[in-house]
Amino acid sequence: MTDPADLSSIPTIDVHAHLLLAEVEEAVAGHPGLAEARELDARRNGPAALAVSGPMVGARVPKLTDVDVRLAAMDAQGVDVQLVSPSPSHYHYWAEPELARQVCRLANEGTAAHCAKAPDRLHGLGLIPLQHPGLAVELLDHALDQGLKGVEISSHAPGRELSDPAYEPLWARAEETGALVFLHPFGCTLDERLDQWYLSNTVGQPTENAVALSHLIFSGVLDRHPGLKLIAAHGGGYLPTHIGRSDHAWRARPDARRCARKPSSYLRQLYFDSLVHDPHVLGELLRAAGPERVLLGSDFPFDMGTDDPLGALRAADLPEPDFHAVRGGNAAALLKLA
How many other β-carbons are positioned within 10 Å of the β-carbon of residue 134? Predict the structure, then answer.
């Protein structure tokens, strides 16, 4: 039996925290593709959401850029370590190859430099250009060369799902190196259907997670790469709590039997953050994926995250070993900090 004192000594680790990098935005400024991407973003989110989001992000710039401000906020939350990833607004999947390479290199180097100011408390993830699969391995290696733990990706790239065979070298390299892949959607392809009441985020993000993870499961990517270390943001969206429907389709329909096992079994091959905003949903996530596959996440410092990730975790009333596993034990093992 594990000594309770050993459990309490585990560091509290938040795997979902973000960073803004001015150098990335300077690199893309003035490109026609940026204006087109912003027009699409405006259509998808709607004017009311944009009117709120601009000031919200502006008020949080110090937490997103200043290491001292970040550390003070972490102390206030009771968080010992953050896994920091660039803001998904830095993906710029519209960029052509050379600009995309520059964006990712700047993001990787900027994230590494930010984390190097507090190396005992901050670890980082870089970016790769999903829109150019031929560059993905090169830039994954670049991220790892900077000392980062892996990379952050969205749920899809224009014209490509994560099941696309063009990504096979990426999955193979990530598996070979042990790199973490953090799946964090940005935008939703349901477009103007979600342009009111911030549905683009509240409904769109969980939908994108579910679609992306389903592509990875049903296509056999996780069969071919069982050692892939993939963390799904936002608790994996709708998929873990509705995985029974996927299992039924796998049993009932031959066109849904592309993967070797029932879909629910793959949840225990993935990792999920705890950011689901409901203690009952969090409990169900632990039941579906296993307590060893859930990691503390806050979406620091955005308004759709939580300022009290430990409070949200305590509200789920988990058994003590599970609480400490999610609080930091699982992440410590994954990040090789233990």
Answer: 11
CA 79 distance to own-chain centroid = 18
pLDDT band at 338 (very low <50, low <70, confident <90, very high): low
**Which run of H or of E encompasses 97?**
helix 97-116
- CB-based contact 67:114 (threshold 8 Å): yes
Q: Tokens standing for 97? A: 């190859």
User: The tokens 């477009």 sit on which residue?
Assistant: 191
Contacts 24+ apart (CB under 8 A), 327-330: 327/10, 327/12, 327/13, 327/296, 328/10, 328/11, 328/12, 328/13, 328/80, 328/81, 328/296, 329/7, 329/10, 330/271, 330/291, 330/292, 330/293, 330/294, 330/295
List the structure tokens of 156.
């899809």
Asked if residue 97 has a cis previous peptide bond (ω within 30° of 0), the answer is: no
What are the structural domains of the chain? 12-334 (3.20.20.140)
Q: How many residues does the chain have?
A: 338
28 to 69, 91, 308: CA distances (angstroms):
27, 11, 34
pTM, two decimals, is 0.96
DSSP H/E element including 82: strand 81-86
pLDDT digits (tens, 9 = 90+) for 13-43: 999 999 999 999 999 999 999 999 999 999 9
**Strand, helix or coil for residue 14:** strand
**Any residues with CB less than 8 A from the CB of 105 and at least 6 apart, and which?**
139, 142
